[in-house]
Structures are given as C-alpha cells and as structure tokens.
Amino acid sequence: MSAARTSPPARLDVKRIREDFPILERTVHGRPLVYLDNAATSQKPRAVIEAEARYYAEENANIHRGVHWLSEKATASYEAAREKVRAFLNAASVHEIVFVRGATEAVNLVASSFGKNHVRSGDEILVTGLEHHSNLVPWQMLCAETGARLVAAPIDDSGDVPLEEIVSRISERTKLVAVAHVSNALGTVLPVREIVDTAHARGVPVLIDGAQAVPHRAVDVRALGCDFYVFSGHKVYGPTGVGILYGREALLDAMPPWQGGGDMIASVTLEKSTWNVLPYKFEAGTPNIAGGIGLGAALDYVSAIGLDRIEAHEAALLEIGTGLLRSVAGVRLVGTAPEKAGVLSFLLDGVHAHDVGTILDQEGIAIRTGHHCAQPVMDRFGIPATARASLGVYNTAEELEALAQGIRRVAEVFA
Amino acid sequence: MSDLRELYQTTILDHYKKPRNFGPLPGAERHAEGHNPLCGDRVTVHVRLEGDVVADVRFEGSGCAISTASASMMTEAVKGRTRADAERLFERFHHLITDPDGTAQGDDLGKLEVFSGVREYPTRIKCATLVWHALHSALGDAKEVSTE
C-alpha cells in the first residue's frame, strides 16, 4: 500500500538535468540559449563529453587487432558500448548490433546489402509519405538500380499515415516495408507494432527508422518484432558520426558484406577473402571508437533518467507548447496527428519560416526552418517550408513561453 | 530590436509585402530560375531585352522577406541598364552584402544599400543574392536559362 508504488513515475528534475549540459549555460546574442532544435541534433551531457575525452586521454588504440594493453582496453570499452546498445534496444545478441556512421548509413547498408540479395525488377519497397530523405533516397537508388518500384503510403491532413493506407499497399511484390517510427518534420508517431504484425503476416520484413524515436521513448526491438531498426547517436545525446543498425541475426547472416576492408574479413589471400562473423562482417575499417564509447555513455545517461519519464516530460511539454502556439495570432500548426512526439512544426501567417528563424535567433531561440529533409511532406501540405521547434529532455515550459513570445515579436516586426 | 531593424528595414518589408514587377512578362525572351534548396525558395526572372538594354524585367516565385524584397528591388534597379551595367551592379551588390570588414559603402547602389544589414547574417546572404544569380543566368548565354 505504499504511496510510491501507486504514484506515477517521479517527475524529472529538469533543473538538475540542465546542469549536466554545459552548452545550456551559453548566451546567444546576449540572451540565454533556448535550444529547441533537438530533432536536428541534441546537446551533449558532460558524461558523454567526458567519456570521449577519457577514451582519447587514457585508452586510445586501434581495436580488435592489438596484443598490447591499450588495444585490449580500447576493444573492451568499445565492445562494452555495443553491449549497452544491445541492452538498450533489448536485442537478443550483440551480433545483431552493427556500429555505423548514423541512421542514414544504416539504411544505405540495408538498401545495398539486403537489396542486392532480395530485390529484383518488378518488386516493390513500401515507405510512407512522411519519411526523412534518409529513408527515401537509398530506396530510390536501389529501385533505379534494380528496376523495383518505390510505393509510398500517403499522409492525411493531420500528418498521420493511417494503418490501412500502409496495409493496403503491401502486396506479393513487396520485398520490404521501411517506415519512420516518429516523423522528424511533423512528430507523427506511426503504429510500428501493427505495421510489423501486418507485414509479417504476409511474410514481408520491416525496417524502422528510429532516429526520432530512440531519444524520446523506450524501444524494445523484440517486442516490436521488427527486422531492422536504425538510429543515430547524436540525436540521443551522443556524439555525431556514430549510429546503429540493429538487424535480426538470421537476416544479417544471410546478407552479403557491404563495404570491404580490414576487420570485416576472416582471411584474405590475393585471390579471395572470407568474411568475419557478425557484426564485424559489416564493420570494415577502423570505426569511430570514441563515438561508440560516447554513445554508450549517452544511453547510460538517458537510461538512468528513464525513457518513460523522458516521454512523459516531453508529452507534457508538447501539450503546453501546442496550447501556447495556438494562442499566438496567425500561427498554424502543421502536423496534428493524434499520436505525436515532441515536434511543433508551424507557419506564421504572412511571414516565411526563414524570417521566423532569423528573428527568433536574435532572441537566443534556436529552431529549425526549411523542409527538414522531408520535401515530400512539404509538397503534401503545399508549403515550401515550416518553422520547427523540437523538444528534448532539458526543455522547460518557460522556454516554450519564450518561443511563443518570440513569435509574437516576429509578427510585430512584420506588422 | 535595433539589430533586427538593420536587417528588416522598412523598405525591405515594404517590397516583401508589395513586390514590384511581380508576375509573368509577355514578350520576354529570356528566363531563368533560381532555387535555394536550403529554404525551398524559388524565383523565376523574366527579361525582355531591346538591343543590349534591359527593357523590362519581372519575377515570380515565393520566398522569404529578404529574397522577395531583393527580387523586387533588383527589377527596379536594373530596368533600363545595359547587360554589362546590370552585371556590374550585381558585383557591387554582392560586395556590399559579403564584405567581411564592413567598409563597403554602397554609395553607388542607391536603394539597394538597404541590404547592407544582410552581411551580419551569413545564413541569409544566399537569400539576397538568389534572384541576382537568376538574372545573371538570364542575361548570359548560360545553359541554365530555362524556357519556361
């Protein structure tokens, strides 16, 4: 009967969390930085910055090949980070965790390697209309190469992709469904569990682009049942230049290597080579060792806070932000799907998004303006660009008030 | 706010809200499109030459305040000039808004001088020059010139 057991998870101590991020102490144009561009990249906590610095200061060596002490230390740290990723995603094995440069590279790897084995002329790849270019262009390239066709399930007026629009486009020609978990441009959350179930019922594998999901909600790849899951380190408070491809072991095992080089081979003669075991088969060359270790530190950091608490915090902020922006005359929100993550994409009547961004920047408020690498989404709504505020663990209601106030200033300049 | 007023001068806002020489130009024989993929801005410039002189010039498209005002004021500035003179004006305009030490005075630029504030906003320089690049294409014999 303890009260603790029945109460919701304790709220975040945002003030303390903010102290973990050195950059948040900065001023921009003489104003305190209000960082609302988390969908582009997140800021880094001291734990991540120090993990990278510590690696270079104390352990730097090449991995997987040295007999010396430092190389063993570096290898152990790097492989410990891989295990952290495995646990974070609840993957069955570290063999299923491939370090890559980012979500973009992970999608390209699957498009090249899986595509080579499975996709032929007349086949189809199914995506949605709200994909980031990174989960669109690699498939277009694969289709151009193979003669396959790219099929896209359309977005509705709220920025949602109804499940039936996806399901009805899965055919016997579909070789892969590749969908975003969360839309970067609009914040729409797709029903990935249901998409996976339906696709699997028809024997079609599913890749999920989780770049915008992993920082904001708990992801369990075995519960989702997906075949591939990709994300970038830098959006989950980790370093740039490192990301993850999760793939089911049986699938990865059957796929040919992607890039050739050192570390991905078992043996090499001048005539031919044999491939290393998973996941190394897909990790040619010296990787971003410090980045991998930094990513491990980032996942430790968000796990210690708790993804459920982060999700609840950002959901509360989204609600506050939505209300605040709706109260500003001339603001129209783009993307109002029932299931949404912390993204506020908006237009201000009579003012181009670019001008909104410049004027907010003068107030110290960092947002993104433009097409957000999702031009088909902009085309769907018949607009060239939006202004986008996107939330992170360290954002506060006060910052959203500053945003709303800043937008009023923009309107004044253009009055 | 004073900083912002340097960029968003009254003249610029006026040309943004009421762009001059906006729309198609019947009889124009030269056209070129400018596109800034960063912000999605598109502008098309139509030019009618009489001999070597820009007899008329109009533009179409959608963009931010800086790019729209720049397009509007460019049309006013180059009308009646020779091609070479218009190109020289572009060079001086470009110098005005990119000059790092801020010494370019732009005395000879007339109204276009209001864009001097752009040099404090490096990300916005492309907005101001987009239409001029399109004009350059339209005036030259470059193959970018579209026939639309």
Task: Explain what the structure shows.
The complex is a heterodimer of chains A (415) and B (148). Chain A is α/β, with parallel strands linked by helices and 415 residues long. Chain A contains 15 helices and 17 strands. In chain A, strand 5, helix 6 and strand 6 form a beta-alpha-beta unit. The termini of chain A are far apart. In chain A, 50% of the residues are buried. Chain B has 148 residues and is α+β, with helices and mostly antiparallel strands. Chain B has a single domain, classed as Sufe protein. Chain: A. A three-stranded antiparallel β-sheet of chain B has the order 1-2-3, with helices on one face. At the A-B interface, helix 13 of A face helix 1 and helix 3 of B.
| Protein chains sharing the most extensive interface | A-B, 20 and 22 residues
Overall pLDDT score of chain B: 88
Instruction: Count the DSSP helices of chain A.
Output: 15
Task: List the quaternary state of the chains.
Answer: heterodimer
CATH level 4 superfamily of the largest domain in chain A: Type I PLP-dependent aspartate aminotransferase-like (Major domain)
**CATH topology description of the largest domain in chain A:** Aspartate Aminotransferase, domain 2
Q: Could you name the CATH class of the largest domain in chain A?
A: Alpha Beta
Main sheet specs of chain B: 3 strands, antiparallel
Shape call of chain A:
globular
Strand content of chain B is 15-25%
Distance between the termini of chain B: 41 Å
